[in-house]
Design goal:
The protein is 12% helix and 48% strand. It is built from 2 helices and 10 strands; from the N terminus they run H-E-E-E-E-E-E-H-E-E-E-E.
Length: 162
C-alpha cells in the first residue's frame, strides 16, 4: 500500500537497490524561489466496512502565491456502494482567517474504486503578507445503509509557512 500504509519490504528493496547500485542521482542547489510546502501528519479514519481513509492537510508558498489542499487516500477490502456521500472541504487560511476554500465530492470515485487517492486544492492566492499561512478542513461522510446520516470529521491543520 502507499501513503499512510507501510509498503512491504520487497517493494522497498525493489526501489532502493537500483538507486544504490546503478542509479545516478543529480544533486544541485535549489532555486532561490523554491516552493515551501508543509503538511500535517497522516490522520486516519476506520470505515464501518473493512477499510480506511487517511488524509493530510497541506499548504504551499511559491513566491507570493499560496495554495492549500487536502490529500485523501482510501482502501476498502470489498467493492460496491459503501458511501451515500463523501465530501472534502479545504481552507487556505492566514492567522485563522479564510482566504480561499473548496469542496470536492468524492462519492462516485470512492464507490467505484477500492483503492485510490485524490487532492482537493484551493485556487492560488497572491499575497505579499508573510507568516501564518495554513491549511485545514474537514471530511463529511455518509455511509450507505447505516441510518446515521452525515458525520463530520474535523481535520488537524497543517504547520504554517511564511
Amino acid at each position: 500500500m502507499r501513503g499512510p500504509w507501510k509498503p512491504s519490504r520487497t517493494v522497498v528493496a525493489a526501489v532502493t537497490v537500483p538507486l544504490v547500485t546503478g542509479g545516478v542521482l543529480a544533486l544541485g542547489a535549489a532555486p532561490a524561489s523554491a516552493a515551501t510546502t508543509r503538511c500535517s501528519g497522516w490522520q486516519q479514519h476506520t470505515l464501518p466496512v473493512v477499510g480506511k481513509i487517511a488524509v493530510k492537510t497541506c499548504v504551499q508558498k511559491d513566491g507570493y502565491n499560496h495554495k492549500a489542499w487536502v490529500h485523501l487516500e482510501w482502501f476498502r477490502t470489498y467493492g460496491g456502494t459503501d458511501f451515500d456521500g463523501v465530501k472534502v472541504r479545504v481552507r487556505l487560511e492566514r492567522n485563522d482567517s479564510t482566504y480561499k476554500s473548496k469542496t470536492c465530492d468524492y462519492t462516485k470515485v470512492m464507490n467505484e474504486y477500492k483503492l485510490g487517492k485524490r487532492n482537493c486544492t484551493t485556487a492560488r492566492v497572491f499575497s505579499t503578507q508573510k507568516g501564518g499561512w495554513t491549511s485545514d478542513g474537514y471530511v463529511d461522510l455518509n455511509f450507505n445503509l447505516d441510518g446515521r446520516g452525515w458525520k463530520r470529521w474535523e481535520l488537524k491543520g497543517s504547520p504554517s509557512v511564511s
